[in-house]
Amino acid sequence: MSRILVSHNTLYEYEEPVRYAVQRIFLSPRLETHRRIIRWEVDSNADLFQYKDSLGNIMHILVVSKPTRSISIDISGEVEVTKFKRTKTALVKKPSVKNFKDSTGTPLDYFRCQTLLTTPNSEIISLAKSICRSITISNLLALANAIETKITYTKGATNVATSATEAWEKKAGVCQDHAHVMLSACRSLGLPARYVSGYLKGQARASEATHAWVEVWLQKWLGIDVTHFKIIDDQFLSLAVGLDYGHASPVRGFRQGGGIETMEVEVSVTS
Description:
Largest sheet: 7 strands, antiparallel
Distance between the termini: 11 Å
Number of strands: 14
Mean pLDDT: 92
Shape: globular
Low-confidence stretches: 91-97
């Protein structure tokens, strides 16, 4: 069992008053059987409304309705995470009626859908077919290793709009690019796979403490961190799942006014 302490503070400042803003926030742990949330607080100087979406993500809607020159989002929490039991079975590509949906009731076919960020090129398809002649955990890890080897972790080489094929051609990217290429490859094999955003304990930099990985359906969801070439364990804390970064990004929204925006972020994920 691992205890994860999170402190995550974000401050947006603007050269002119923001007249109105709405942000969708995924910064609360998913309610899963292998974890116990001891405490979790989401605070802001704006109004917050909490919901749960159809994939089981805890979502906050932040609304700014009065002029302001700053928006703050402050996260503080403590979670206990137990070690995962790894599945050893191979994936049945066409799930039985019993396994047609996951635990949230979402059809597995939904997670076979490619997006603009995950659509593969011929090289990604060929790589997936050559390594995953059979669908096993060891082959999926070999696929992750091949992707990580191809795409060198390089901050600033890509952005949130970079697709899997663009990162593949650049041969450089960050965790979200590794995740997008892995999703692209797995879905090209017909496997249900989903993007996961969350926290990784023990990382010194804020940009690395907030992390992204994938989950592949092997009779249940199996998490794979392509960037660190490993199965997800009790050092990881998932916040949201979706088809790609756009569906599961920690913060996404729009604003009216404000002019130039600056952002300061401090993240600590420790024991």
